[in-house]
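A further point concerns the way the authors explain their paired sequence and structure data. Each protein is reduced to its one-letter sequence and a matching series of backbone shape codes. An entry of this sort, consisting of the sequence and the corresponding backbone structure tokens, reads as follows:
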Amino acid sequence: VTHSIPACIGSMTFNGKQLDNESPVSIFAVNKCYETVQDGTFFDGSGFAALVREGYKVRADVNISLEFRTTAVHGVLLGVSSAKVDAIGLELVHGKVLFHVNNGAGRITAAYEPRGTNSLCDGKWHKLQANKSKHHISLIIDGNLVHTDNPHVQSTSADTNNPIYVGGYPADVKQNCLTSKSSFRGCLRNLVLTKGQHTELFDFSRAFDLRGVFPHSCPGAEH
């Protein structure tokens, strides 16, 4: 077993002696336990999760679905970007959800603007689907569809072979389809990427880099 247990551990004794877990000698990626916990992964607003070290190829088609819960109006949700211009990006900006795609000919954006600035940032779960099909892109937020016209109809493939960054990204990594540098604060769950018949559910505890992210532990209320 090479990954940590997604659980809470308490009242541990060693050789009959109670261990003091309030003041450990060292600590790494361990969060406090919450009295009320929901399924999901907690992002504390300081970092990111990095998935698929060997590189994710977006190419012509991809469908991204996830659920998020936050009280912040800004935050990176997901980005995959080549060192050139080809990229995709999902982010919250001023309470709107933006889905950006660049197939090499220029960035296009589908934007979902809720009726109230804070209606997506109300601390409740919201369901997001972002679809790229060649040069067409669309967003579905809580069942509401938004799509956008793309003038670059000949450019259909986002040629990436790069990690998927969720909730933020390192300062030295280029993200051509994200405008925000703010790390996401809140909870994410059920991140699924689908290409054709292949569906992949991502487990954050298996990320190759986690900073300020606590898999399988979403506090029932903001702390």
User: Anything to note?
Assistant: The domain at 13-219 is CATH 2.60.120.200 (Jelly Rolls). The first strand starts at residue 13 and ends at 14.
